[in-house]
Write a structure and sequence with these properties.
The structure is a single chain. This protein is mainly α and 628 residues long. Among the domains are: 156 residues, no CATH class; 85 residues, no CATH class. The radius of gyration is 25 Å and the shape is globular.
Length: 628
């Protein structure tokens, strides 16, 4: 199991000061670059890696309670990482003028190449655990011992080119992820988290199963600035899960709702998970385009989760929180509504075509002035809040930075050995030219990979090995990438290793397996919709002529929305009243027909839905609720 580890507090005051200074310098450097433009790729990515390695080996010692001897090991690794990067910086003219794969490597080149690989593997292990470093080591072993690639060529690929450690994946971490994580840190320090919670309570807290719906709404809002399922659970869960349990939800279901809603944050525009920025880089499109593709599937996901909570509450007769105990919407918006301005600033900037890093920088810089503009939100905000945000932004980037550097080793091995082509041919052969079988294989691979590593490297490995096969079998390129992206994310709620569920279950004091399978039911639409947008790209808003095709797009989105509501109703046994088995089967069949775009399937789905509604309508008011 791979899970981002909590950093260890530095053992001495002077070390705490050094960590804070390095973290603030890292954030300041990336803000400067976002404003004035980056240096050459190797310099920029190398500097990003230098900052990350410095923080990793100070915050994640080899033994948390280590003495001076073990600190010496950390110092040696830090010196090795710095030496590997500075070797490139100090000999930059030599590296830019040499002919790669032709000019021989010097002894120093070979030495620092080995050091760079070992330091990146160890740094990744300290932050993320064993799964990703072992995966990279397996690819290294394959390239070194089972192919005709020579060792010097492999060293060049991984260390001296932009196809390895310093590849585009590390560039995404440096250019995009760092700025958006920093934006999230400024949002948190400016009090926006309280706005999200009060906003959700004011609009849904009083309805049936209100606390569960609060979890859905607040987690989706927090997910727009977080991009991490586990972090989302740990921020929202301590409030929403006890509230759900007090209102009558079973502990496994409460954990499932929080985990599923938090996981969806990675697919929720405008600020998605780190892998979305990697996708934009791979497809050479603006990040705003990726966010647009994700808009409808994300909405379908959250509609399904919202109605799953609603139908579960109706089935068990659970009520919301009394209105007298809830914040009023008008009061929330008048007191704190202005804290939405930084998010709107990012949205407007992306719509007008400004670069994503520049939009994130503008949003981050706006957070504190916006909070200070009103007396209702300026309490507790000082210069220390700014420095804390800069420090937290750098620390929160470490997991992604090391994952991207380590994933660069995987990509370098795949590229130099031709493994991607071989694997594509194997998948196409195994699927026997049937796209649906290739999609199933890719979905299973995404879930398995996601169990052992974070979303970003899991998605990167799938792009290298599986996505080309989907494209070869006829899947549109954006849809194939989004498919891999979704299933790399959904591993967070899929047993046996479901990190978001583990985090939520610990807060709910619920059985892990019960919470895991409940999360699969709550998030069922997430497992179905990706198959549908591969076959009907209009769900990704991919159309050739909007003026002619917008009615079809609107109908496709509407029918899919009704379909996911039917899916929730069939899975949770309630629509207008309790549903016997035959009605549940009819609703599930209607859901599958409606989610798949097409007039014939839509007609069948609507007919099945109308049949169930007609049967339930007369008894809707006197229908008994299930056991409370």
């Amino acid at each position: 199991m791979s899970e981002e580890k909590a950093p260890t507090a530095p053992v001495t005051q002077w070390l705490r000061w050094i960590v804070a200074a390095v973290a603030v310098a890292m954030s300041a450097y990336h803000m400067y670059v976002a404003a004035f433009g980056p240096p050459e790729a190797m310099i920029f990515r190398g500097t990003h890696l230098l900052f990350a390695l410095a923080l990793v080996f100070m915050l994640y010692p080899v033994r948390p309670a280590a003495g001076a001897g073990w600190r010496a090991v950390d110092l040696a690794l830090l010196v090795g990482g710095f030496g590997a990067v500075l070797h490139i910086f100090l000999n930059y003219d030599y590296f830019t003028n040499r002919i790669i794969y032709i000019d021989e490597l010097t002894r120093a080149d070979r030495f620092w190449a080995v050091v760079a690989v070992l330091v990146v593997l160890e740094g990744t292990r300290r932050v993320l655990g064993w799964a990703l470093p072992l995966t990279a080591a397996a690819f290294l072993a394959y390239a070194a011992f089972f192919t005709h690639v020579t060792t010097p060529v492999l060293m060049e690929q991984l260390y001296l080119s932009t196809e390895g450690i310093f590849g585009s994946t590390l560039g995404v971490s440096a250019s995009y992820v760092m700025l958006f994580v920093l934006f999230g840190a400024f949002m948190e320090k400016s009090g926006t988290g309280q706005l999200f919670m009060d906003f959700a309570l004011s609009i849904t807290g009083h309805t049936a199963g209100g606390p569960g719906k609060v979890s859905v709404v607040s987690s989706s809002l927090f997910g727009t600035v977080s991009g991490s399922a586990v972090a989302n659970v740990m921020v929202d869960g301590p409030l929403t899960i006890p509230l759900m349990k007090r209102s009558g939800f079973r502990p496994p279901f409460a954990a499932a709702v929080e985990a599923t809603a938090s996981t969806g944050g990675q697919i929720m525009p405008p600020v998605m998970g780190a892998a979305a920025f990697v996708m934009a880089e791979f497809l050479a499109v603006p990040y705003a385009q990726v966010a647009l593709w994700a808009l409808v599937p994300a909405a379908l996901y959250y509609v399904a989760v919202f109605f799953a909570v609603h139908f579960e509450a109706k089935r068990y007769g659970l009520h919301g929180v009394p209105k007298a105990e809830l914040p009023r919407f008008a009061r929330v918006m008048s007191d704190r509504g202005h804290l939405f301005i930084p998010i709107l600033l990012i949205l407007v900037g992306l719509m007008y075509g400004y670069s994503a890093p520049l939009c994130a920088l503008a949003g981050a810089l706006a957070c504190m002035p916006v909070a200070l503009a009103r007396a209702t939100t300026r309490a507790g905000i000082t210069w220390r809040s700014v420095f804390d945000a800069l420090e937290d932004g750098a620390k929160n980037t470490l997991a992604v930075a090391m994952a991207c550097a380590c994933a660069g080793i995987v990509i370098g091995c795949v590229t130099i050995t031709g493994l991607g082509i071989t694997f594509t041919q194997a998948v196409v052969g195994l699927a026997q030219n049937a796209l649906v079988l290739a999609l199933v294989l890719t979905a299973l691979a995404g879930i398995v990979l996601g169990m052992g590593m974070p979303t970003t490297p899991a998605y990167i490995v799938m792009v290298a090995l599986l996505v080309p096969a989907l494209i070869k079998l006829g899947a549109p390129t954006p849809a194939a990438h989004m498919f891999a992206f979704y299933f790399a994310i959904l591993s967070a709620i899929t047993p046996p290793v479901a990190l978001a569920v583990f985090a939520a279950a610990s807060l709910a004091k619920a059985d892990l397996w019960a919470a895991g399978w409940a999360a699969v039911r709550v998030g069922a639409a997430g497992f179905i919709v990706p198959f549908m947008f591969v076959y009907e790209p209009t769900l990704l808003l991919i159309v050739k002529d909007w003026s002619a095709e917008w009615p079809f797009v609107a109908w496709s989105v509407l029918s899919a929305t009704v379909g996911v509501v039917c899916l929730a109703a069939g899975l949770f046994g309630w629509l207008l009243a309790a549903t016997p088995p035959w009605q549940r089967a009819a609703l599930l069949a209607a859901a599958l027909c409606l989610i798949k775009p097409g007039l014939v399937t839509d007609a069948i789905g609507l007919a099945l839905l109308a049949l169930v509604v007609a049967v339930q309508w007369p008894a809707r008011r006197r229908a008994p609720h299930g056991p409370a």
